[in-house]
């Protein structure tokens, strides 16, 4: 008995793969004719256009594309190398500057520590049993000591001491005494409130010579009894620090940050707030570690930063991207100019040579335009012994082999159908395992461990049958065993409220059936048909009739909806029914299908008809029907 013919293209496609048009002899001729007409439509616009011009334009376009690619790749490599060398140089430079800066700043911090321990300052803060003369004497000595420190270090602009009952200050001198209560009026007082010492970013102080930008270091001074009594502020000339972080490049955009990532001072065209925004964005970037040296492209700039292990400072430099790529852009322009001249010369030579290719190609084009499957025209050209001669011979061979190629479409369709069957078979197992494992999970929660061994035993048997060493066809006996294992698992959950009966004669049990053909319908009855019910009954029967086997599966559930064949959002029971239906059509053709009838609240009756298969068949030609009767 021969298998069914491939379904026509009017049939609904399955899984995106339908039979090729004209799988038979007439279909092959029809497909070839359509292909030739498509080629003619594609060639039609070129009939009145010189083929030499087409070749010329194509070659010109190819050369230009290659030129652009080469220039683009060269530009990218050049920019990458420029960024690497620039960041390497800048990081080394920032490391050296950081070392010098660390030495300078550490010296300022040590001086502030020495001032905090100055005996005259400590004596002045201690008001106990001190007369006016003694306090005046201590103030004079304290002023003298601080003035010597300020004059000995040119980098220090002034020294301010915030203390209760401050002595008078010389307006011409570098030392000023200020009432401690005035500290709250300073904009930077919040910086030192929660710490014993802190650097204060660049700000402006008023001196007898006018406003001067400074960077300050503040340290709290305590009495021997650990009582906060004064604050000493060393004002450092901002110009000296700026000159230090500029190094040998006065036009660089650099910023000095403390460990709190606050901008202490900066140089260049970028403002302090822009640096703060940049640092904040880099902190939020998971690729950036501000506690070690590194670099990153930030917007249209290259940001390089450096922090030595023993340093309390971070030096950052921002370089505009256009400045880095300036040399690469110039190189790309030179390459493009040279390449353009070379392209013009090559195009002139190509135009001359293209004319030599026109005649044989037009002959071949004419032969292609006149091609038809029945006529099989071949170009009769014997004057060309070069590559064109080989092209004509190749075209003739192509025409001869066209029929053979289209004759292979039927075999290709069969292989395609075999792959479709395997794909549909592979889809059913995960769907079934998902629902069954879900029941196991429910039982583990609701029933504990008493029934688990029995469930696992049944599941093991089901898995072995379900896998079946990758076979798609198993005996009806194994199919029923698999089905009965599933029903026994459900009975463990339902108890005596779920009943079933299987009436299949022994001769039928020895025949072969596609794996997992019956189980999806039973699963659908339990999950959907008995949903919301306390009891249920399922009956499975089978009979032989005229070389076929008729299976029926009936239940007394709520019935099935009329739109069960429509695609659903979730992989529910309808999915399994459609899968079985599609596999049966793929195995046996459209003559074998499933039938479903349902009465609301009274149950569903499923009928499955398959041919009798007494021996394990081999999948050939996309159908099992040929081997069904023996």
TrEMBL record:
TM stretches of this protein: 54-75, 332-354
InterPro entries: Bact_2-comp_sensor_kinase (IPR050640), HATPase_C_sf (IPR036890), HATPase_dom (IPR003594), Sig_transdc_His_kin_internal (IPR010559)
Pfam families assigned: HATPase_c, His_kinase
Highest taxon in the source lineage: Bacteria
Residue ranges of every copy of the Signal transduction histidine kinase internal region domain listed in the record: 419-498
A GO MF label: kinase activity
Keyword Kinase: yes
Keywords: Kinase, Membrane, Transferase, Transmembrane, Transmembrane helix
Domain Histidine kinase/HSP90-like ATPase span(s) in chain numbering: 518-612
Gene3D superfamilies: 6.10.340.10, Histidine kinase-like ATPase, C-terminal domain
PANTHER family, alphabetized: SENSOR HISTIDINE KINASE YPDA (PTHR34220:SF7)
Source organism of this protein record: Paenibacillus oenotherae
Keyword Glycoprotein part of the UniProt annotation: no
Protein name: Sensor histidine kinase
